[in-house]
Every structure is written in C-alpha cells, then in structure tokens.
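Morning, I've got a small favour to ask if you have a moment. I owe you a coffee for this, so here goes:
>
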Amino acid sequence: MTNKLSFEALDEMVRRAPFHRWLAVELAALNDEDIVIRMPRREEMVSSVTHGYIHGGVLASLVDLTAVFAIAAKLGRGAPTVDLRVDYHRPAITTELRAIGRVIRLGRTIATAEATVLDADGALVASGRGAFLPPSA
C-alpha cells in the first residue's frame, strides 16, 4: 500500500503535538515499507542517575508514536492506540535512538503496526506491536 502523506506532511504531523516536541522526535525516513523516527537522548529522560539509561516509558512512547505514524502515512491521519505491547531488550544509554515502524495490517476496524528501537550503534533496545483504531472513511 502506498503512502497518502508526503515526507513533509508526515514530519509536520510528527512534530505537531507538544509531547512529541518535548521528546524532540523527527521523521528521518519514509518509504512505502516503513518509516524511521529519530529521538535524541536528553538528561530529562534518564531514569537511573547511576547508569544513565533512558526511562522505559519514554521508549514505550517512541514505540507507540512510531507505529501510529506508520499507519498515518498510509491513511493520511492518525489512529488512537487500542492496545500496545513493548519488550525491552537492553538499556538505552545512547546519544540518539532510531525507531523503525511498519504497518502489519490495515483492517476496517483494527490496524496493527510494529516498531523497533535501535541505539546509535544499531543494537536493538526495544520493540513492540500495537493495535490501533483507524478513523472511519
């Protein structure tokens, strides 16, 4: 399925929400298979002062919004999250994270998408899958 949104339109949508601006996320790539969203590490995201890793809630948010915007690229608008599962694979202690999102299925009542989060070295930090409520046509 081809994208209904251009790179510029999707990037503007990604940056529109105040929470997304606080996360400082930006669209890095868009094609018909997937999207890539970048997020810099900031001190406010750290949950362990001793170890310096990013809080799991921030990683879950990155998984969620990346999956949502993978769907938005296809539909031309976002879809609320109905269910979300996140797996944490290693601590995120990097300067930047990159999330790759792709649509698994666009149904009439439920859309499914997944996202993987990689650190600056390309190591898997977190992954997840969500169910989303696509807007009515």
About this structure: The chain has one domain: 7-132. Residues 15 and 22 are 9 Å apart (CA to CA). The chain has a mean pLDDT of 94. The chain is about 25% helix and 35% strand.
